[in-house]
Amino acid sequence: MDGAATVAHGETLTFSQKIKSGDFVGLSFKNFLLNMVTLSLYRFWAKTEVRRRIWDKVSLNGEPFEYTGTGKELFFGFLKAMVVIFVPYLTVLLATQFVSKWFMILFLPMYIALFVLLGAAIFMAFRYVAGRTTWRGVRFRVKGSASDYGWAYLGYGLLTSITFGWFAPAMTMRLEGKLWSSLSFGDKKLTWQREANENLYGPFALAWIVGIVGYGVFIALLMPSFMGGLRPNGVPDVALFFKIYGYALVYALVVTVASAAYHAAVMRAVVAAIRIDDARFSTSVKALDLIVLSLTNALIVVFSLGILTPVVAARTVRFVISRLSSTGTVNLAEVLQAPRSAGGDEGLADAFDLSPF
Question: Could you give the strand order of the β-sheet that contains 188-189, starting from the edge strand earlier in sequence?
Fold first, then answer.
């Protein structure tokens, strides 16, 4: 009887979206014009409006999500982050110039701290967006330490460097686990349980080999061009710059195609590892899907000079949601409200230009 009662209260989770790229074209030009007039200060309010419209078009079990963040929160969070980053750096710089050159030693720990702050910024941005997302009036919440995540980001980054990139899949999954396992819907916590057959290193090996070999070919092609492209006065010929950018574009396209299978595998592994009650998630994303999305998004950004970035954000969310599915049930009948989180969390991510959407 108890089991039957639990099942009766459980809900299956069905995601849907009604996002149309055309609905974001007008908003894109509005945001662009207001950013021009305000010298880009409007971007915080622009970002907020884009999120509100996207969230409103995404539904779970027929009920839309709601984004409750404000541009004011993002703006003041950004100002605080700029103080945290630049005041210490400026202080050491002035001390080095006017007090003693020995203060230069402090740049090393500050450089290390920069990577810790970078990781902390990712965690805080995730926490802010989650805390400003509601469904059925209930907020999402992230519990955890931004500093712990920042130090983990630094440590895993060092391991990735030492292993010439081969620790990257483990780094990605461990950091994703720290984010998603800290998330809850109201007082109902999500859990993180990785699958045994993630199959990440096969696609990663392909991407790694193509990236390294491609870079070698890129340099080999440029060397004779660079040596022959110098004028007698040592100034590079204009044609050389076109060659550099042309080769770089080809290299970027090759790497994008070669790494698509790996990024698709990561998406599938991350989604499959997320749990809430008896619900499990999966995504049908394939490498070709990511290639098409990445290239078309890049073309939209390039040919619109960045104006249609909100359209790209909307297309990306539509891409993810349309391929997301769930099995099992979740007991949502007795979920309690989560407390409202701090408003300035995303400021550090804005300072590093890491904010989602």
Answer: 15-17, 58-60, 63-67, 133-135, 138-142, 183-185, 188-189
Residues in CB range of 146: below 8 A, 6 or more apart: 120, 123, 124, 127
DSSP state of 84: H
Tens-place pLDDT, residues 272-300: 999 999 999 999 999 999 999 999 999 99
Indicate the residue type of 63: E
Residue with tokens 């330490």: 145
* Residues linked to residue 276 through DSSP beta bridges, in sequence order: 279
Cα 1 to its chain centre, rounded Å, is 45
Whole-structure pTM value: 0.90
User: In the 8-state DSSP scheme, what is residue 229?
Assistant: T
Asked whether 128 and 346 are in contact (CB, 8 A), the reply is: yes
Joined together, the tokens standing for residue 341 give 């989180």
Residue recorded with tokens 């609905």: 23
- Check: CB of residue 308 under 8 Å from CB of residue 25: yes
Structure tokens at 191: 């859990």
Q: pLDDT, tens digit, for every residue of 241-255?
A: 788 888 889 999 999
Check residue 230 and report its DSSP letter. B
What are the tokens at 250?
Answer: 């080809």
State phi, psi for 135 to the nearest 5 degrees: -145, 130
Angle between helices 107-131 and 168-180 in degrees, nearest 10 = 50
- CA-based nearest residue to 184, from 148, 138, 235: 138
Contacts of 135 (CB under 8 A, 6+ apart): 60, 63, 64, 65, 66, 185
Residue of 110, 148, 107, 141 lying closest to 126 (CA atoms) = 141
Residue whose structure tokens are 């859990």: 191
Tell me which residue of 83, 22, 50 sits closest to 356, measured CA to CA: 50
- Model confidence at 117, pLDDT cuts 50, 70, 90, reads very high
Q: What is the 3-state secondary structure (H, E, C) of 242-306?
A: HHHHHHHHHHHHHHHHHHHHHHHHHHHHHHHHEEECCEEEEECCCHHHHHHHHHHHHHHHHHCCC
* Distance from the Cα of residue 181 to its chain's centroid: 17
The pLDDT value recorded for residue 355 is 66
